[in-house]
Amino acid sequence: MSHRVMMNKLSLALAVIATASGCMIQDTNSGVCSHKYLTTSQATLEQIEAAKERWESDLPFCGKYINSYTPCMPEDLNAIREKDRWVQLQATKTVEERIEKERLLGKKHYRYYRNKDCQDSFNAYMCWLNFPRCDEFQESLPLCQSACENMFRVCGFEQDLWRCDEDVIDGNDEWNTRAFFPGQPFRKNEFERGGVPVAVCTPSIRGSASTLVTSFVIYAGVLSLVLLFLLQ
Predict the structure, then answer these.
(1) Positive or negative torsion for Cα 118, 232, 1, 163
(2) Residues 24, 140: contact at Cβ < 8 Å?
(3) How far apart are the first and last CA of the chain?
(4) In whole angstroms, what is the distance from residue 111 CA to residue 60 CA?
(5) CA–CA distance, 223 with 128 (Å, rounded to integer)
(6) Residue 135 · residue 141 · CB < 8 Å
(7) Would you call 95 helix, strand, or coil by DSSP?
(8) N or C: which end of the chain has fewer CB within 10 A?
(9) Which helix (H) or strand (E) holds 33?
(10) Which whole-number Å values give the CA distances from 97 to 139, 157, 201, 215, in the listed order?
(11) Mean pLDDT per 10-residue run, the chain (232 residues)?
(12) Cβ of 116: how many Cβ atoms within 10 Å?
């Protein structure tokens, strides 16, 4: 079965992640916008250390990726920790499966294998999807297009394989092999004078693309399948 046909079949199984008003957790307004783990440039050293202790305890996997903004998360602490563990499990499993495929196919297919920047950008992507940024109205924000582009770029995917269109592709046109990718529809970053990011999408933090060389519920199995099918 050809790569194109396989991608068409996969596209039929993908469901669009719905967005709606409010801080969304599992497609309901059950999330809360938490400042508990936030560290800013105005924070004192003591405040930064205190926040770090909290996210290292509660979010040992995703904390380092989301501590620069106010994330949408479950209200219950045990649920926060469980979700962080789930994201880590899914991300680790996906990367390991991807590496195994690459090693079997040979060096020209290496993208995740021995590429820590690629693995890190994928982990960040997973965390941003599962703990989206809240805006000033306590609503969760869509993923930044730059986060998607950064992940594909750092992992060495040819640009014609990128899945970072702003709009959702419905599979009924010439781009049907580039159907919905988890995170769509993406939002373009906006900046104030001086390059300061405007909070219009997740993560909307200064340097997120260059440094990480990267209600939402990410369907990790879907993302894993997409990445595996992108092997060619």
Answers:
(1) positive
(2) yes
(3) 12
(4) 25
(5) 14
(6) yes
(7) helix
(8) N
(9) strand 31-33
(10) 34, 17, 29, 28
(11) 38 31 60 86 82 93 92 92 95 93 90 93 94 90 92 91 71 52 86 80 66 40 54 50
(12) 9
- Give per-residue burial for 158-179: e unless 16+ CB within 10 Å, then b: eeeebbbbeeebebeeeeebbb
- State the Cα–Cα distance between residues 192 and 45, nearest whole angstrom: 27
Whose CA is closest to 142, among 183, 114, 103?
A: 183
The rounded distance, in Å, linking the Cα atoms of 57 and 114 is 28
pLDDT tens digits, 162-221:
888 766 555 554 444 455 678 888 998 888 887 777 889 999 875 544 333 333 444 455
Give the torsion through C-alpha atoms of 23, 25, 29, 34, to 10 deg.
-40
Counting runs of H as helices and runs of E as strands, what totals does the chain give? Answer: 8, 4
The answer to whether residues 38 and 198 touch, using CB atoms and an 8 Å cutoff, is no
| Measured distance CA(77)–CA(72) in Å, rounded | 13
Q: Is the peptide bond before 203 cis (omega within 30 degrees of 0)?
A: yes
- Give the closest residue to 7 by CA, choosing from 180, 170, 177, 151: 177
Q: Single out the residue of 24, 23, 38 nearest to residue 137, CA to CA.
A: 23
Structure tokens at 64: 């380092």
**CA angle 228-108-116, nearest 5°?**
70
Take residue 162 and report the two structure tokens written for it: 């990128």
pTM of the full structure? 0.75
